[in-house]
Amino acid sequence: EDDGQEQQQQQQRQYYSTSASTCSTPGNYEEEEVQASSSSYTIEEQVQAGWSAELCSVLKVSTVHSNPNFATPWKTSAQWSSVGTAFPLEGRKLLTNAHVVANAQLIHVRRCDGHKKYVAKVRAICFECDLALLEVEDDCCWQDLTTLRLAVALPRLQDEVAVVGFPDAPSGGESICITQGVVSRIDLHSYSWDSRLLVVQIDAAINPGNSGGPCVDGTGAVVGVAFQKGAEHTHDNIGYVIPALIVKKFLACCEKNQFGFGTGGFRFSLLDNPSLVSWMGLKSGETGVLIDQVEPTAPAAKLLHPGDDILIAVDGHEIGEDGTVDLCEEDQLVCPANDASDTCKHREGSGSGAVSKLSRSRLRVPVAWMFRRRSPGEIVSLKIMNSKREGRTVSLPLHSVRNLVPGDPLEGERLGRCPEYLMVAGIVFVPLTESFLTEEYGKEWEGCPIRLFELALHGRLEFAGQQMVVLSDVLAHEFTQGYEIHRRRRLTRCDGTEVRSLRHFASLLANAKGEFLKLEFAGDHMLVLRRDKIDEVTTEVAARNQISAHQHLVDRGFA
């Protein structure tokens, strides 16, 4: 065993000691043509010189973005550029972060051993796990390019890892960069767009431009994808990578073209107060969490009883008094135990990351992971006990994560690139989203009306397809003068009928009759418009402001 450990350490030292100074030709990111120099080598030459083929296969991603404007949805924001990293997988696919290529107008990739840029296109994207697949049609990009293999198992704490990528020019130059560290923690953490999934925390440096790059272990296997760093000024040496377990699930979703991670559709409270524990009838040594809220649109609404049900276990995994469970052994193995692929065999025989040693690692994670690890529609088994100590087993279909005020732009990306809006005589209505609040009030939502803030923080869907519709703006016209005071107010009724969504509001307008249109807002406010002038004014205001369409609505399949 000592000989095996020494061999593994020598392998890691050889792998990590590789200098990156000659891995790509120095150059200016803004220039289209870069002259090759004597320091530019082919992949084969680099490998013959002692380089790892995995390190030499990482690509630089240069993206030109143009973000949607949620306050004025008919136009986009100014274009801007960013740099990220990608690496090849089997099937001529490049893996990177979703935020690296979000709202992309143009994507270029460049191999670390060359100077030519290749046009890439987004093949699949999922903001919930912040991953994307790119495709490149030019065969030259794939010539002698080694595909990277995903690790078989989650890394262990203190395992040595290296992050490979292209930190942006102001902080790291144009050549490939390798930083080394150890695994510090495995836990649930927030992803880029209001999603909590499993992450691997490391102490290797991750900087802008590293996003999408591989985090590799001592054997060259990818244990995760770099995507975040601890940004607070009190944080030192904290970086986050998306584990190979999540990458595997994302690739499976791409095959089915069905994306998403499940949720139980309920909220719970910890049973750590002695009085509460006694009132619920728990005996000494019994643990669980109290279900206190159920989403009305989730299957859990018909199966669980908030305020009376105690969740004891999920799929046989008992819940501790802190709301955590042991990490499933099948999650610790990225591929099935009976997988006889070369990748599995390679990792099983490796040193500190070996599967045989993972069984001694007892990681605990929040119970939410027992739902997030599966897809919406899958069934989980819940062990429930009520306050009368009556036990039962519930087969719960998992729910999709849907908030009354959505914070994930995935809906806009998947269902329509332009955000939804509806203009009525120059009065602009939009769905209330976190993106809209950020556009209007900044990242901290300073000055956001308390009524909108409360909806974003605590609002719950009452029925499928529900949207909160707000009056975003009043474009100047004498027909609507005086109605500017209704900006940012929530629309509640149209001619006395409750508004369920923006699309429902449009149908109410189309079918409305009478001389006047009456719109009611939260807080007992209202405005009235002469119906026979609405279409004329809408056309006139759109022409004045160079707006090509007075509405953009998305059919989500709900009434």
Write the layout of secondary structure elements.
Layout: H1 2-16, H2 43-48, H3 53-56, E1 59-65, E2 80-89, E3 93-96, H4 98-101, E4 104-111, E5 117-119, E6 121-126, E7 131-135, E8 160-165, H5 169-172, E9 177-190, E10 196-202, E11 214-216, E12 222-229, E13 239-243, H6 244-256, E14 262-263, E15 266-270, H7 274-280, E16 289-294, E17 309-314, E18 317-318, E19 324-326, H8 329-332, H9 342-348, H10 355-358, E20 364-366, H11 369-372, E21 379-386, E22 391-397, E23 399-400, H12 410-415, E24 421-424, E25 427-431, H13 434-441, H14 450-458, E26 469-474, E27 490-494, E28 497-498, H15 502-511, E29 516-521, E30 525-530, H16 531-544, E31 551-552
Antiparallel strand pairs: 1-2, 1-4, 2-3, 3-7, 4-5, 6-7, 8-9, 8-11, 9-10, 10-13, 11-12, 12-13, 14-23, 15-16, 16-17, 17-18, 17-21, 19-20, 21-22, 24-25, 24-31, 25-26, 26-27, 27-28, 27-29, 29-30
Structure commentary:
The chain is of the alpha+beta class. Helices cover 21% and strands 30% of the residues. The chain contains 16 helices and 31 strands. Strands 24, 25, 26, 27, 28, 29, 30 and 31 form an eight-stranded antiparallel β-sheet that branches. Strands 5-4-1-2-3-7-6 form a seven-stranded antiparallel β-sheet. Strands 8-9-10-13-12-11 form a six-stranded antiparallel beta barrel. It is flat and about 75 Å long. The termini are far apart.
